[in-house]
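User: Structure tokens for this complex, please. No commentary.
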Amino acid sequence: MRRLAAAAVAALLPALLAGCGVRATEVVGAGDGPRPTGQPNEVPIYLVKDGKLVRTGRSGLLNEPYLGLQQLTIPPLSTESSQGLVTTVPRSVGLSAAFLDGAGVLTVHIDQADVNWPRVTIGQVVCTANAAPNVKEVRLDYPVTITSRKSSEPTPPATRPLAQQLKQAAARYNCGQFADLMAR
Amino acid sequence: MTPDPPRRPPPPGRWMRRPALRPLSWPLSWPPSWSPSWRTSGQGNRHVRLRPMGLRTRLTAAFLAVALLAALVASGISYVLVRRALLQRSQDAQLIEFRQVVQRSVPVDRPPGTGRMVAAQINSGLEGRGRTIWAQPVSMDLVGGDRRPPRIPSAIGPVSETFLRRALSGMVFQRVRHHGHAYLLVGGTAVGREAGTDAPILVVMTVSLRHEEQELASFTRALMIADGLAVLAAVAMALAATRGVLRPVRGLGRAARALGAGDFSTRVSERGRDELTDLARTFNRTAEALERMVGELRAKDAASRRFVADVSHELRTPLTSMVAMAEVLADDGDQAARLVASETRRLGDLVEHLIEISRFDAGAASLVLDDVLLADAVAATLDARGWTGEAAVTGPDDLVVRLDPRRLDVIVANLVGNAVRHGKPPITIAYRPERDGVELTVTDNGPGIPEDVLPLVFNRFVKAEEARSRSDGSGLGLSIARENAVLHGGTLDVSNGPEGGAVFTLWLPSATEEEAE
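Assistant:
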């Protein structure tokens, strides 16, 4: 009786001890992959058709109200291309919303120095940014190159005057300023 | 103390005369001096002690084994169940959160070129304590294909290729052990509706299960403590239970010892209704029967002693006149008359001895103490019997011992008479002070006493050799001598000397004044 119990304990104890802790498992299936359900509101963006700004929508992302700016650098979808819509923002450029101040001025970062885009391109950026909620004005923020030179050297004829550049950089826009470019 | 009563049946008739009224000697000297072996060995039972295979040990071990087994089985089962529940809960929580975050972060229609943004969103959505997340858009043709899945940085965890393959086609999880700790790997691929344009996003999440391990460890600790307490409780209960069993057993043992020691009034309590109570009842009945039987035997024994005493007394008066008359007749010189006279005298001696023995048996014998000068007393004894020339006496002349001079005379006379009759001269009587009394030895030069008779020599009507059966002795002399020695609180022993003669050694203590009363 005693021996039997001892044997039972002796047989049970290692089994118990060996089974302690969290053990590893095989790869276990847990059903189908996650099926996307989220469908945030569309974000409006402005594309160009025949030199005019055309408002259209792209599907949005959660918590990304300024997704439109990034979308401007993406080539138009096939459905948009078939309508003749293009984007004039260069593909290599990075557009991102930096911050929105209390007065509703959205600063848009452009990772390209000395932006000297055509007015329609700026219109695309400004109107897309302005379409985001709470944005009243848009300020474009990009690096400005200032080259210092000795007075004896001649002024390079190609560069724009610095004052004009700074003025342009400090300018605040809203979509209304580009109303003449809007397609009817 | 009387010597052991003969245990074996005496051999028939050669050297032993069996009188018709042989007194029962054993109930006389109660309690008997012989101590059974259990008496000494059983003394320590009163104390609680664990014998190697005692009832207490066995019961305790059985209780312990049962408790341990039950506790371990219960703990084992609960441990397995709790672990399963714990891991299931945490796994489910992780899987649900993973699925929710991924589903919420990945839109049904994903804007083009936002794979990394979505991956970053998943990353920040899943970020948390103990988690490492790896989320990347992967090439479309990887999903469900046989091509090698992308490499996952080893910082994420030990993600196997099988895991990745299966994660590309559905949601999977795996528990792994890495560097001594357990981790939960969760993997899945989110594929948007526009499967053709949107790159699927593979998400692998590693969750440390350290918290669960700690919980399990503390649970194990709690179980161990509980098991330990259960075992302690089992031991306590086992001790209590054995106490309940052993107490009556010990009581019975004590009672049985008391019964063995002669206390026939011993009874044990009969409380309770279990088997031990039955045993106690049986014991009580047995003790009762024994008490009754022993009482009857004692009564019969006393009656027979009384009868011997009465008969002896009744015989004495006629015998006295018969002895006197036979002496007168013997003086006439007739051979037959002389024989009658000597036999009548022997009969008279026998009756006197019987009366003496009866006094001892009745407890009526008492000491009349006096200061005795040993040299004078021994000389007087020899002189009175006419043995002065037959025995050499050695001993200090001035030894004074306080004892009963008449009884000393009886003892010495019996011993010397025995030596004169059965031994050969020279007979030596030696005495010397010994242990606050006197030791007196009587040595003869005879053949000694046969070894098998030696222990019986002080019994009544025992004669050492066939020839003696015709001798003058009553067969009671040595018995009376020993009774007298014992009455003094002394001893009388016999042995065979190195030269072959019998050596009787008497020791009598000197009585104190108080005992003189």
